[in-house]
């Protein structure tokens, strides 16, 4: 399947549901080398310029920690969501940013305008995610992982004498790791990991159903340039002090949104029948008034039902029934708190030094 | 082939049809099952409905997409595979036998002869 200019497998031989369950119960490996990876020198003038777009205090980021954040446009809309980390590579301090393949052009224009010598490393480095409760056991015999490494910790380790970037992170709601490894060692690493027969390669299909069960947003679905992080229910990821800072794009709009009632809210939905909820379907109240739309939908292997994320108008009282138009018929759907499946991370640390 | 039991034929919509005593049994091809991936739900057609060839009569939902099932020929739906109601994955396991979807009493056997043979369908898939 073509995806952001790459040919990506939806699934490997055992199918989406099997891959999904293997990640929840054991572990699975995703090749996410299509994603953007960039290194930006930890230099005060670069950071200041980047702070126009990124709602964090970049100068205070703790070394060896990662953060979920965004690039914001002038209206506070999301240009992209990303993971940003502060790491040293060969005694030099960098921000390491991982961003969406579908947004490379937009993101890199910003990165390069802020830091002309930023290094796009995704041409030389593959990126693999190993996800699931057994990830640590699959990985620890192959790569040195300290016992006290927590979720969103990041460090440099070694494989085949190559430096690799190891972060304890991922986008499935499970414990897991992302590994940025030079291309020449990438195949060896995958072959090595797959020697463990409890793990398997997983495709885009299970990646989507896992992130949806975990209630995680996906760019182009829950997030776009017309939606702010606050409207997307992600205000926890914004540094509130930065909202007072004129240097941050959309800071006034965002701080107003925090104080006032939003026009839309993000909700989780679960099907009451066997029908599948899918992106783009329209939601109605019991008087046939349109109240919102689904932005992502899938079959949830854990709940054995279809689940979805969508936006509805805040005026709608969620005690009332919601209907989804599925193939020209209205079907009752139930609101379900996000996430659908509890996250299983190894505990979080603090944000700043 | 005997007079009562026909060879299995295929449509361009990746359905198979076999006919016994003027009753057609219809399902999706193994190729269709493979490309749809895990099938999670099927909305079965209503028994008693008279349908024309190419009518959309029911829907198969897989983890990847919903896809319409068409009547391959004119006729009346006389039976559906209720086992699929609880376990649509039977189609993934055995699309061209246990995974049959519905049976029709057919009105025009000429329509059946016009469908593709297994070899023709294989060639069609390679195109």
Q: Which consecutive residue ranges of chain B, at least 5 long each, have pLDDT under 50?
A: none
Oligomer category: heterodimer
For the record, the CATH architecture of chain B stands as Beta Barrel
* CATH level-four homologous superfamily name of chain B: RNA polymerase II/Efflux pump adaptor protein, barrel-sandwich hybrid domain
Lateral strand order in the biggest sheet of chain A: 10-11-12-9-3-13
How many helices of chain A does DSSP assign?
7
CATH superfamily annotation of the largest domain in chain A: Probable tRNA modification gtpase trme, domain 1
The total strand number of chain A stands at: 19
Q: Are there runs of chain A of 5+ residues with pLDDT below 50, and where?
A: none
Number of domains of chain B: 1
Helix content of chain A: 10-25%
Helix content of chain B: 10-25%
Number of domains of chain A: 2
Determine the structural class of chain B based on helices, strands and strand pairing.
alpha+beta
Order of SSEs of chain B, N→C?
Answer: EEEHEEEEEHHEHH
Strand order of the largest sheet of chain B: 1-2-3-9-8-5
Summarize the structure.
The complex is a heterodimer of chains A (353) and B (127). Chain A contains 7 helices and 19 strands.
């Amino acid at each position: 399947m073509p995806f952001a200019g790459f040919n990506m497998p939806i699934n490997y031989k055992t199918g989406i549901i099997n891959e999904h369950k293997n990640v929840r119960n054991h572990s699975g490996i995703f090749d996410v080398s299509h994603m953007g990876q960039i290194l930006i020198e930890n230099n005060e003038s670069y950071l200041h310029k980047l702070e126009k777009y990124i709602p964090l205090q970049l100068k205070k980021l703790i070394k060896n920690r990662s953060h979920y954040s965004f690039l914001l446009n002038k209206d506070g809309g999301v240009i992209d969501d990303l993971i940003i980390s502060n790491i040293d590579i060969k005694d030099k301090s960098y921000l390491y940013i991982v961003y969406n393949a579908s947004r490379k052009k937009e993101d890199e224009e910003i990165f390069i305008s802020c830091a002309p010598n930023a290094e796009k490393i995704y041409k030389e480095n593959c990126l693999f995610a190993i996800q699931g409760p057994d990830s640590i056991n699959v990985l620890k015999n192959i790569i040195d992982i300290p016992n006290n490494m927590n979720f969103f910790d990041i460090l440099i380790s070694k494989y085949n004498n190559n430096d690799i970037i190891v972060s304890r992170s991922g986008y499935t709601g499970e414990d897991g790791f992302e590994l940025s490894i030079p291309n020449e060692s990438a195949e060896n690493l995958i072959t090595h990991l797959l020697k463990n027969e409890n793990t398997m390669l997983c495709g885009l299909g299970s990646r989507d159903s896992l992130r949806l069960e975990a209630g995680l947003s996906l760019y182009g679905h829950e997030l776009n340039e017309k939606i702010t992080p606050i409207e997307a229910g992600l205000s926890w990821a914004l540094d509130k002090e930065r909202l007072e800072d004129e240097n941050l794009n959309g800071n006034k709009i965002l701080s107003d949104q925090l104080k006032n009632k939003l026009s839309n809210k993000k909700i989780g939905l679960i099907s009451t029948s066997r029908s599948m909820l899918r992106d783009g379907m329209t939601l109605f109240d019991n008087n046939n008034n349109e109240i919102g739309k689904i932005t992502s939908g899938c079959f949830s292997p854990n709940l054995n039902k279809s689940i979805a994320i969508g936006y509805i108008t805040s005026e709608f009282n969620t005690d009332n029934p919601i209907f989804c138009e599925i193939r020209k018929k209205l079907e009752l759907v139930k609101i379900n708190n996000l996430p659908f499946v509890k996250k299983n991370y190894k505990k979080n640390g603090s944000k700043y030094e | 082939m005997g007079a009562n039991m026909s060879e299995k034929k295929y449509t361009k919509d990746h359905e198979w049809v076999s006919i016994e005593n003027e009753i057609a049994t219809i399902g999706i091809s193994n190729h269709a099952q493979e490309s749809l991936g895990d099938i999670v739900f099927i909305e079965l057609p209503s028994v008693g409905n008279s349908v024309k060839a190419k009518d959309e009569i029911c829907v198969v939902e897989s983890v990847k997409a919903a896809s319409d099932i068409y009547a391959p020929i004119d006729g009346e739906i006389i039976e559906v595979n209720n086992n699929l109601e609880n376990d649509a994955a039977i189609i993934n396991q055995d699309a061209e036998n246990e995974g049959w979807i519905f049976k029709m009493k057919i009105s025009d056997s000429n329509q059946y002869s016009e469908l593709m043979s297994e070899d023709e369908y294989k060639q069609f898939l390679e195109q």
